[in-house]
Amino acid sequence: xxxxxxxxxxxxxxxxxxxxxxxxxxxxxxxxxxxxxxxxxxxxxxxxxxxxxxxxxxxxxxxxxxxxxxxxxxxxxxxxxxxxxxxxxxxxxxxxxxxxxxxxxxxxxxxxxxxxxxxxxxxxxxxxxxxxxxxxxxxxxxxxxxxxxxxxxxxxxxxxxxxxxxxxxxxxxxxxxxxxxxxxxxxxxxxxxxxxxxxxxxxxxxxxxxxxxxxxxxxxxxxxxxxxxxxxxxxxxxxxxxxxxxxxxxxxxxxxxxxxxxxxxxxxxxxxxxxxxxxxxxxxxxxxxxxxxxxxxxxxxxxxxxxxxxxxxxxxxxxxxxxxxxxxxxxxxxxxxxxxxxxxxxxxxxxxxxxxxxxxxxxxxxxxxxxxxxxxxxxxxxxxxxxxxxxxxxxxxxxxxxxxxxxxxxxxxxxxxxxxxxxxxxxxxxxxxxxxxxxxxxxxxxxxxxxxxxxxxxxxxxxxxxxxxxxxxxxxxxxxxxxxxxxxxxxxxxxxxxxxxxxxxxxxxxxxxxxxxxxxxxxxxxxxxxxxxxxxxxxxxxxxxxxxxxxxxxxxxxxxxxxxxxxxxxxxx
Length: 573
Known about the structure:
alpha+beta; Butyryl-Coa Dehydrogenase, subunit A, domain 1; Butyryl-CoA Dehydrogenase, subunit A, domain 2; Butyryl-CoA Dehydrogenase, subunit A, domain 3
């Protein structure tokens, strides 16, 4: 067992050192003026980075020494429901106490509310490590996004009431969106929010289902506030706390993530407070929540994959067959190599994505709350919003599909023993399976991203990356990515000229995968310029990913309507 999940991860340490958060941290620290008001605030970027590394190392030790050793027991015990009260597994309760003692419960929240004021990128890295230790715990501590959403959109009185309690760990949160008849189609939400005309107070009535940590003490609830409406324009966001009228009816008996309760909830005249403006619950506030959730689940998936890969590598190096360890067998080391390359690629895209999420957040904050907001600031806020809107779903799609494959291969490398509960890999496979389903399936991530792909939202980023000073092998690899990028452009032009929504829908997954492979290829080339030791992984990724881009290009530009034209015949047989 590793002693520190940060210090033993060379790739994660490289990523933090090269995350390019200079502008983000400068803006979050108000030009480092916060150092005069808060003793723990950094005085410059190097000071901030040094602090981040210390916090990461502290969490890395907690993950390795405390959380990971309890994970199997947490999985076996799970969360339970008795007399309407949900209880976490013993190990889960102990893990949360460890994190509280380390003061890691308000990572991104401002210091005036007791938070650490860290960028989302740092928070995401921390959630990756927590997920490597116990993916179910990430579903609980990872819901700090609830506090971040309150910080963004609630009024000052609501913030002062709730956020210090989030930072201390006194309260936890739940994002309450899904209903029995409204899964991904959140426009169909029916839980009612009614306002007492005499007092102006709001009350919630209705059902919610599949709510992660629905037993939490603070809920952000999407509810229908406008009588007679049927679409998203009638929905608002509400804040409520534990109340006798809020009941956990049941918790789901799940394949994996057993330490995190998934609840069915009944709201009966539960007092609530409106967050932000009426009618903007889905169109503004949930979209912000969902973007954060995509990033969090991407981190969860990368963490699970890292754990599964390491378990498989250790087993392969120790397991002997036919007089030698199985890691020397080509069929086995090929799976291990593919897993390693896939994890590095997904991590590279994830933390490039979080950088733009951070940039979006700080510039949106300047637009909403700053003085002397210039056209340049507004333009940057608009640009980073557009980039983040494409990258967050692409990152979730890549990370979660990757995690499932890596976990599956980890079982395969273990052989029959991997199917047994005596080994961790079967848990990793069960935990990974939900990641490409919840917070939007992979198919819905592609739907969310396709607008950015067709509008070429990140093409300027790729153009800039393509002009980095590559030489030798890296220049040759960059040329292959350049050619693939042209294929993406031509594929998008072809589909756009068709002006056929059904054909675009059919090819959406391929177009998104092409875009992801090309952008990730450029990012890995950029990182290989900084660290020569990354060349081999970059070469392997590009050698495998670019031919797939070419294949997808041929399918997309074939104009083949066979699947559309004959779908009923195919499905009938």
